[in-house]
Design goal:
alpha/beta, Purple Acid Phosphatase, chain A, domain 2, five-stranded mixed β-sheet, 4 helices
Length: about 160
């Protein structure tokens, strides 16, 4: 399964349109919050599943704040990250990942693209698509029974 993971678009929907060639080659898009309306608009344009996670700027959202998803035998944990203090570090999130036996954790909130491994678990932040930031990025994730491959891409 191939996923496109994005986060923190904060209303920069036009930038999402620039990566439609990527969107057309994935099975599912996951938006990790702070731009949920962008994800709603995107879902109306593409013929693939778009999953929305609510972030701290998505007031009134009925989307979940977290989601644990089993895919190809792997446990994937998706969230925005603000409730785990990810701007101060990943310790709290690492503890939660251990509790959930997650193989990979995908979070946003910091606007900093990250791909690292802690205690055998992958921690991935796709970065931000927000206007006014120099480095705009997203993650493409390939999940198979053999493993999880992450590639971060700058726009």
């Amino acid at each position: 399964m191939r996923l496109l993971v994005i986060s923190d678009s904060h209303g920069n929907y036009p930038l999402l349109l620039k990566i439609t060639d990527v969107i057309n080659h994935v099975d599912t898009v996951i938006h990790l919050g702070d731009g949920e309306e962008d994800a709603v608009l995107l879902a109306g344009l593409v013929d693939i599943k778009v999953i929305r996670i609510a972030g701290n700027c998505d007031q009134g959202s009925t989307s979940p704040r977290e989601m644990l998803w089993e895919c190809e035998g792997k446990r994937l944990f998706f969230l925005h990250g603000d409730r785990y203090g990810v701007k101060q570090g990943l310790k709290s999130l690492e503890q939660r990942a251990t509790e959930l036996k997650a193989d990979a954790v995908f979070y946003g909130h910091t606007h900093i693209a990250t791909n690292l491994e802690l205690s055998g678990t992958l921690f991935v932040n796709p970065g931000t698509l927000m206007k006014g930031t120099g480095f705009k990025s997203y993650a493409v994730v390939d999940v198979t029974e053999a493993g999880i491959e992450i590639s971060l891409h700058q726009i």
